[in-house]
Amino acid sequence: MKKKQRITMIIIQIFLILGAVIMIMPLLWMLLTSLKTVTESTAMNPFHFLPSSLHWENFATVIKQNDFPRLYLNTFAMMALRVFCAVLFSAMAGYAFARLDFPGKKLGFGLVLFQMMVPVQIFIIPQYLMIDKLGMRNTIFALLFPGLVSAFGTFLLRQFFMGLPKELEESATLDGCNIGQTFFKIMLPLTKSGLVALSIFTALFSFKDLMWPMIVNTKTDAATLSSALAKISSAYSVDYPQLMAASVLAITPMLILYILFQRQFIEGIATSGGKL
Amino acid sequence: MANSRKNKTPITRRQWNEYRWAWFMIAPTMIGLLVLNIIPIFQTLYLSFFKSGAFGKGNIFVGLDNYKTMFADQQVWFAVRNTLVYTLGVVPVTIALALLAAVLLNGKVRGKSIYRTIYFIPMIAAPAAVTMVWKWLYNNQYGLINHLLQKIGIGRINWIDDPNVAMISIIIIGVWSSFGYSMVLLLAGLQEIPRDYYEASNIDGASPVRQFFSITLPLVSPTLFFVLVTSIITAMQVFDVIYMMIDVTSPSYDSTVSLVYLFYNNSFKYSNKGYGSAIVMLLLAIIMIITVIQNKLQDKWVNYM
């Protein structure tokens, strides 16, 4: 029995390692290619798995040709503003829907649920036309625009507020707090894990978004990492080391955030799914 | 408190206070939802009855013409087929693999958290970057995959430009990218199953396979249903990977173009927003039908405790 268990364990480990290799390999190949010369990257015989020496100049070229500092700035501004708006407005609305009584509550929450059921592409043309009419194309505000409010965030944070005990508010009222103070000073700090989950979710999905920045910010200096990559991809379609260098540059910031906060990332995604 | 108005008792000052706070707190979200989402739904529907005027001419009302064109447009049917093929390819494979990995990682395995961390990595990479490296791996002449295939004597496969293969290549990327997300959710679901159930069935001498089917699967079914629903809806909206990999001029375009890609091309590349709107209404209709079917089937196999 003992021996049989050990063999099963070894087989399981082999499967898991194989899985890990498959998940990592493309990203590793991205990094390795980014450090090669074009000749090395396309040499078949002899085949170069590893670069002969590290050609960091690919990165230098790509950064210079595409103004990466600007792309980072645009992407981070978009992510930060979307997270700020989603968290602030969703926490307020989520609290009201979870804990207050008011006329129009059912209708309002119905609209939140309705928004979540509809594919997002249905909003894109009118949103684009609005930004166009406002003369706001190629701005940071345009990148933020669809994320000004979040139906998903409202739903998620409502769930978190509903899980808190009622006594908290009662004692706060006795202490003379008004509703705003109760929300801000007492209830909000208690939903920290929900706020973190929503922040991660919002940051990740705005970072990955491709279609909206591509449509609304067509100028190179207003692009995000994702939308710039789409342009770079068609511009130098043969120079794979440079393309891979650009890709490495585009995924690194999120990768660093992930390595630093992996527990929050994974738990955030798990709870935001579990709460729905 | 909530019923006081219906009972015709006058509204107290405290209630008014509560209403005012609540309206103030939901106001940003409600205004935003109306302007950004609810009104746009009707605008898209409205636009789908117009032909977008070129060069400063206004939109021309064409009635149901966009829809008539759409149902006669072969490419739309290709896109419907491709979107469904992609969904049917990605979702079951991803969920099966994710469930397998989650079950393995839920047991007593060494290095659990390291595996979990690694499997989730593709989820945090931008699809634009991910597709670039896969395109490079799939490269016909210089790609790593074809190099390895030649070494073991299978020979080259034209992963991108062969219309019969391209969809498979895209499905592989789809599985690779979404696997981690499903696994993390399923693992969280598995961790909520009380250990006692397994201990009790161990005493009864149940095999691990038997345990999986009579304890794990029924108890994780709510999570499984959630993962299934979100995966299907996400897969139906596939765009990034196909856009980055398959150019409009590629021989594989017809066998890979998805509804959202076609929507994008018509609305923003060819600037025919009316036709684009009609395509997105079709997508909405298909997603609604799938959602209704899912909810009907839900009672048959989902086990809410």
Structure description:
The complex is a heterodimer of chains A (276) and B (305). Chain A has helices at 2-34, 38-42, 57-66, 68-99, 105-117, 121-133, 140-144, 151-162, 167-174, 179-190, 192-208, 211-216, 225-235, 240-260, 262-274. With 276 residues, chain A is an all-alpha fold. Chain A has two domains: 2-57; 65-274, MetI-like fold (Orthogonal Bundle), CATH 1.10.3720.10. The relative contact order of chain A is 0.13. Chain B has 305 residues and is mostly helical. Chain B has one domain (73-301): MetI-like fold, CATH 1.10.3720. Chain B contains 13 helices and two strands. Chain B has helices spanning 13-47, 65-72, 74-106, 112-124, 127-138, 144-151, 166-191, 195-203, 208-236, 240-245, 253-256, 259-269, 273-301; strands at 50-51, 60-61. In chain B, a hairpin with an 8-residue loop joins strand 1 (50-51) and strand 2. In chain B, helix 4 (112-124) crosses helix 7 (166-191). Chain B is flat and about 75 Å long.
In short, what is this structure?
The complex is a heterodimer of chains A (276) and B (305). Chain A is mainly α.
What are its keywords?
heterodimer; A: 276 residues; mainly alpha; MetI-like fold; B: 305 residues; two-stranded antiparallel ribbon; 13 helices; 2 strands; disordered N terminus
